[in-house]
Design a protein that fits this description.
By secondary structure, the protein is α+β, with helices and mostly antiparallel strands. The protein has 14 helices and eight strands. The protein binds a DNA duplex (11 and 11 nucleotides) through helix 2, helix 3, helix 6, helix 8 and helix 9. This is Adenine DNA glycosylase.
DNA sequence: CAGCCGTGGTT
DNA sequence: TAACCAAGGCT
């Protein structure tokens, strides 16, 4: 079998030896040093930031990080909190399985490790929501452990500097990058501070100079050795994800109002918006009318008001939301608020913040609140 | 192992 | 504007 070579050019052996040292020097003088989760070795704070930063940009994370730290100052506080409160604080940040795993992880640290995070990457990676790269980042920043990370920044830097071919999301390419990441780490003699600076340097270089759009090669410490720079292929490396047409789904949502309260339902724990509170949903116009009728909100199946449709884009599909509105009190024989189980709730619009609500639904309800004033 | 899982910024 | 994707992990 002759798979195409992943390393394009020559091994660049001289750089491989000097890579870590040069990166550490660069990080200390030109890297980032004042992000909210830096200048601490508290594994709790480092862990919290690393989970939030998974597939999420720094500027988006910062306000959430502050909110979480204020509400949950340590891992015990987070472990003791009700999951609903965690989900409510996480709402809007996306990838909600992270929030459930965050809570499970805090409880595991308390129960399995007596409230102290383990210091080895292997043990960290056994905890919910912590994979190989996140484990290495935590171990490196909190404990100075020698462990390779491989996030989007590192993939971009390595692909360009060492000329790694292929889409990094592909398993074969990712495996090669893990090997490369291990091979360019600081040596055994490196101090914990060196290791932390190295790990931070990889992230900083990728986030500030070796960016996707227009890399600032003039300021990069590796310009003279960079395969992409030498061949003018900064834009081609790393290889882009293969294009796929994203499907469009359509859903109908019921905005059932009772005074200033609206009916919310808890979504199932897995799948899109898992564990969040959202509006009752149906697959088509007839089904949403049936639902409103069954809830006693309308006199017949034509009593719904149409609201402006909303389109929401996910990574892998688009969602068209058709909101349909009904006033519970206007229904004949409406007996007032029905006792609800743990999966449904009448929520005053002013208290939406207490519930974890998907971003587009939140926008819809915010607009509704504005229109009622 | 490849598909699933959010949202907002950037180009 | 529509594509692209960011401090990935889980199944």
């Amino acid at each position: 079998m002759s798979a195409s070579p992943i390393l394009a050019g020559q091994p660049a052996a001289p750089l491989q030896a000097a890579f870590a040292t040069r990166l550490i020097v660069w990080q200390r003088s030109h890297g980032r040093h004042d992000l909210p989760w830096q200048n601490t070795r508290d594994p709790y704070r480092i862990w919290l930031s690393e989970i939030m930063l998974q597939q999420t940009q720094v500027s988006t994370v910062i306000p959430y990080y502050g909110k979480f730290l204020a509400r949950f100052p340590d891992v015990a506080a987070l472990a003791a909190a009700p999951i609903d409160e965690v989900m409510a604080l996480w709402a809007g940040l996306g990838y909600y399985s992270r929030a459930r795993n965050l809570h499970r992880c805090a409880q595991a640290v308390v129960e399995r490790h007596g409230g102290a995070f383990p210091d080895s990457p292997e043990q960290l990676a056994e905890l919910p929501g912590i994979g190989r790269s996140t484990a290495a980042a935590i171990a490196s920043f909190a404990f100075g452990a020698r462990a390779a990370i491989l996030d989007g920044n590192v993939k971009r830097v390595l692909a360009r500097v060492f000329g790694v071919e292929g889409f990094p999301g592909e398993k074969r390419v990712e495996n090669a990058m893990w090997s490369l990441a291990e091979s360019v780490m600081p040596g055994e003699q490196a101090s914990g501070d060196d290791v932390s600076a190295y790990t931070q340097g990889l992230m900083d270089l990728g986030a500030t100079l070796c960016v996707r759009g227009k890399p600032d090669c003039g300021r990069c410490p590796f310009t003279s050795d960079c395969v992409a720079h030498a061949t003018g292929r900064q834009r081609e490396l790393p290889a882009a994800r293969p294009k796929k047409t994203v499907p469009t789904r359509r859903t109908w949502m019921l905005v059932l109002c009772d005074g200033d309260g609206v009916l919310l339902e808890r979504r199932p724990p897995s799948g899109i918006w898992g564990g969040l509170w959202s509006l009752p949903e149906a697959a088509d116009e007839a089904a949403i009318a049936e639902l409103a009728y069954a809830l006693g909100a309308v006199r017949d199946t034509r009593g719904l008001h149409r609201l402006a449709p909303i389109t929401h884009s996910f990574t892998h599909f688009k969602l068209d939301i058709e909101p349909r509105c009904a006033d519970f009190n206007a229904a004949p024989g409406a007996g007032g608020l029905e006792a609800r189980d743990n999966e449904t709730a009448w929520v005053p619009l002013a208290q939406i913040d207490d519930y974890g609500v998907p971003a587009p639904v939140r926008k819809l309800l915010d607009a509704l609140k504005g229109s009622l004033i």
